[in-house]
Design brief:
Length: 89
Amino acid sequence: FEVKRSQKIIELSKKEFALLEYLLRNKNMVLTKDKIIEHVWSYDSDVLPNTVEVYIGYLRNKIDKPFKNGQPLIKTVRGFGYKISCEDN
């Protein structure tokens, strides 16, 4: 899967794309790890909350870290979960 940020194409795995899509569909809303697991992984998967942290890390490495001049899109809301705030395309 591919997405674009600041005219740069970013390649994502199927699960990374599904996670990013869910965050974007719920832009500016804080999503708990349980909510993310419920919507991104299949119901019969045995997924631990740590798995969400790992995939958030993968996304940050691809869509935030390479863009030093832009604001990070993925935010951690300590004690609650994650949200995405978009300021550029």
